[in-house]
Write a structure and sequence with these properties.
By secondary structure, the chain is of the alpha/beta class. Helices cover 32% and strands 23% of the residues. The longest helix is centred in the C-terminal third of the chain and has 21 residues, at 271-291. The structure holds guanosine-5'-triphosphate (GTP), magnesium ion (MG) and zinc ion.
């Protein structure tokens, strides 16, 4: 049997890549009921069924899966922002980070369009995240600055680019691998709003080895079904201190003898991050009230 990875699912065919070859595969009958649970990124065993088509015989265990877009077996997420247009800010980063942290995947912070940025202001912001432990990658897809290093980070991995619309995700990927020819700019945005966009993710192969997933930008407004505790765990530097609080149920808001609040006072936890956390905590509480 041959082993490959599903790079695309379309019209009840699965496109399975093995080495440099992509084979259109159907699913063995006994798997049919699992059809909708088979994802792009899944590793499968398949046989050739005559002609150039294949049949998927076995689905190998899945390491992880991202919900948006639904892709399996991802190595890392590049959370991508523009330094300018749309302007980056801490609250925006923090909101996207909450969603990204929920996936449990390794997260890198990419800031694109540094050709337009004020380096001093940008560094002040990115330093906050670097101190927490997020790798920060500065890029300009336009001038090519940082693209070579970025390419190195993608080598032999499956990487998802996610972030606000207009950040330059598709432009970055085109700079990394010109053959991808992804749609960028206003056109991309118009398609994104239309009905006929490919709603399903695709693994795009890199010549050097590895795959990337381009995703359409989305705006973050609400966090559905997120509990206070889940939120807290998405702020990794806050969650790390929580065990030192007096109350095990401490949400680091009004509670006394709170190690997190002490760390904010001492300047060990960034105040702006803490405020983002409180703001989101309040949103969750508010939403709960609405449902009652
Ligand atoms: N100045 C500058 N402009 C850039 C850079 N990278 C991308 N752009 C521009 O930013 C705009 C948006 O780029 P896209 O690559 O379409 O952004 P995206 O993140 O893929 O957006 P969505 O697909 O809507 O999520 C385009 O007009 C690009 O030309 C950069 O490094 N510097
Ligand atoms: Mg795009
Ligand atoms: Zn606390």
């Amino acid at each position: 049997m041959l082993k490959g990875v599903i790079v695309k699912a379309y019209n009840s065919y699965y496109y399975v890549q093995s080495e440099d070859k992509v084979t259109m595969c159907t699913l063995r009958g006994r798997f049919k009921k699992e059809r909708f649970s088979l994802l792009v990124g899944d590793l499968v065993l398949y046989t050739m069924s005559g002609g150039d088509k294949g049949v998927i015989e076995e689905i190998l265990p899945r390491r992880n899966r991202l919900l948006r877009p639904t892709v399996a077996n991802i190595d890392q997420v590049m959370l991508t922002f523009a330094a300018v247009n749309p302007d980056i800010n801490g609250v925006l980063i923090d909101r996207f980070l909450v969603l990204a942290e929920l996936s449990g995947l390794k997260i890198n912070l990419c800031v694109n369009k540094i050709d337009l940025a004020n380096p001093v202001e940008l560094t002040a912001l990115t330093d906050i995240y670097q101190r927490i432990g997020y790798p920060v990658i500065l890029l300009s897809a336009k001038t090519g600055m940082g693209i070579q290093d970025f390419r190195t980070l993608l080598y032999d991995k499956t990487t998802v680019l996610a972030g606000p619309s207009g950040a330059g995700k598709s432009t970055i990927l085109n700079a990394v691998e010109p053959g991808l020819k992804l749609v960028t700019g206003e056109v991309s945005r118009k398609i994104g709003r239309g009905k006929h966009t490919t709603r399903f993710a695709e693994l795009l192969p890199l010549a050097a080895g590895g795959f990337v997933v381009d995703t359409p930008g989305f705006s973050l407004t609400e966090f559905n079904n997120l509990s206070e505790l889940e939120l807290m765990h998405c702020f990794i530097e806050i969650a790390a201190l929580a065990p030192a609080c007096k109350f095990t149920s401490c949400l680091h808001d009004k509670e006394p003898q709170c190690a997190v609040k002490q760390a904010v006072q001492a300047g060990e936890i960034d105040r702006a991050r803490y405020h983002s956390y409180l703001e989101l905590l309040a949103e969750i509480k508010e939403k709960r009230k609405d449902y009652k």
